[in-house]
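Lab notebook, bench 4. Still working through the backlog of constructs that have no structural model yet. Next entry is a single chain of 215 residues. Request: give me the structure tokens for it.
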Amino acid sequence: AMGKSGGGGSGRAGGGSGGGRAVCSNAGKASSSKPSSAQVHRANQLNPCHALFHQSRGLSASAAKEAAQAAAQSAKKAQPASQDTNRANQLNPFHEAFWKSRQIQPGKVEMVYHGTSKENADAILKKGFNPSKDGLLGGGVYVTTDLGKASAFAGRDGRILRAAANLGSVETVDARPARRGGYSEVAWQRSHDAAYVPQGEGVARPEHCVKDPVR
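Model written out:
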């Protein structure tokens, strides 16, 4: 099962003589009207990477310059390296880099559920999904967007796994003939990445079968 990891964000820089850690900020988009010299001066006084920030707090010009340079260096070190950002994206299933690193075409990501025994859940969390060899829709990983259905499969002592799934191309299948005839409906596997069976069309509640467990 794939976990959900967070991305980056934007910090907010502040000034003052309090004990919080100062953060250097980059200029945003230019506005249509040019700021006045007083506005620029005040902005510099609130920017710890500028000497005026430190001079307004009592440091001499030379000491303020050194403090501003030190703040700029500290801010630069605090920024994540590009390779770190890329690696974080590769661990985030809601970022296209996650799927590209697994040779999967990026696409819409949905949250799905899989109900199973505690033993199977532990194995899935350690090694990933192991597709079934057969089933109503043939071999694959069976998941559902219906939490109640997953809960029924898990039973009282089982586990419900929540996974981020990139289903790819999905074919909607009426599985009633297969259910009545006792065979597997597998035609979708020749041209699609997953099959979807709506409620009432061979299943009591909706389910998906995903061909490639990497998805």
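Notes after review: The chain is about 35% helix and 15% strand. The CA atoms of residues 31 and 39 lie 13 Å apart. Flag for follow-up if needed.
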